[in-house]
Specification:
The protein is mainly alpha-helical. About 75% of the residues lie in helices and about 0% in strands.
């Protein structure tokens, strides 16, 4: 695997921390809030924070010009996955939820194979897919409870959205400033969920829940996606989703320590296998310079900052 630059690692580690905490916060907030209300409260403040920046920079024309792909990205990355995830966390632990997100890098490799049928995927990467799949099987199989398959299915929808979203950023929106993409996407999702939220608004919301939603919106959405947008441009779409494995470790620790969730046999056995699978499945051998350049231009590069498309 080609080494990432210092900036790449800084962005990567920042994302690992920022996206390690939402699972705990969602688990707490969903006790009082409907999942659709949570989507609104997570996106609306973020859009209101970022909109003045877009206006001040006179980037509204840029937003309108790229509105179609921003809307597609919004639905795939925010609108549907966040509702599914919040719904799932009503029924399964935050630890299991975060671990299921580990399927994202494996999905990314498969998606890359489908998109570029001529690309050679090494035996090492196929081995990684196999190991990761076994890890997920242990995770799901050993932690499965009656009725859990429905919520695990919802998490697979989340994984699919999280796989396609970075690809859209890398291939269709790489030339658009991150603040424009995130502001437009969150605004669109918030508007779409307003009618649902009005009907399902709770009678009482505690201070703890409001605090959770504030962090989810400001830190884990507005700030996080600006950082993630830079990470995708820096290291490519398929390598960027590897951050999933690192934030999962943080999420599991927070779930066990903060929410007193059980450290199950599925986690103990499955997570190391999925982590090893990630390392193998997302690695690649050195390619000729011409091949690397083609990868960068197509947005599929796993390369370091010196070769990103700017």
């Amino acid at each position: 695997m080609n080494a990432m630059s210092r900036r790449g690692w800084t962005l990567f580690l920042a994302m690992a921390v920022i996206w390690g905490i939402p699972y705990l916060l969602i688990r707490v907030a969903v006790r009082q809030l409907d999942p659709g209300v949570m989507v609104l409260l997570r996106t609306a403040p973020a859009s209101l924070l970022l909109a003045p920046i877009v206006i001040a920079r006179r980037q509204i024309p840029v937003l309108l010009k790229n509105a179609r792909w921003i809307i597609v990205f919004a639905v795939i990355e925010f609108g549907i996955p966040w509702y599914c995830m919040s719904t799932a966390e009503k029924h399964i632990s935050s630890s299991l939820t975060s671990l299921l997100i580990c399927c994202v890098p494996l999905f990314a490799v498969l998606a890359q194979r489908l998109r570029r049928t001529q690309e050679h995927i090494s035996r090492r990467r196929y081995l990684g897919l196999g190991i990761g799949a076994v890890g997920v099987a242990f995770l799901v199989g050993l932690d499965l409870r009656g009725g859990s398959i429905t919520w695990i299915g919802l998490m697979m929808i989340v994984c699919l959205g999280y796989t396609i979203g970075p690809m859209i950023l890398a291939t269709k929106l790489a030339h658009v400033p991150g603040v424009v993409v995130v502001a437009g996407a969150t605004a669109f999702v918030a508007i779409c969920w307003i009618p649902w939220a009005v009907v399902h608004w709770p009678t009482h919301v505690s201070g703890e829940t409001w605090s959770c939603m504030a962090v989810l919106s400001v830190v884990c959405t507005a700030t996080a996606f600006l950082v993630f947008f830079e990470l995708v441009k820096e290291v490519g779409s398929s390598r960027s989703v590897v951050v999933t494995y690192f934030n999962t470790a943080i999420a599991v620790v927070l779930g066990v320590v903060g929410l007193h969730e059980a450290l199950t046999s599925g986690i103990v056995i499955g997570f190391p296998l999925v982590l090893v699978g990630c390392i193998f499945a997302t690695s690649r051998t050195k390619e000729p310079a011409s091949s690397e350049l083609l990868g960068v231009l197509s947005g599929d590069s796993d390369l370091a900052v010196d070769q990103h498309p700017e």
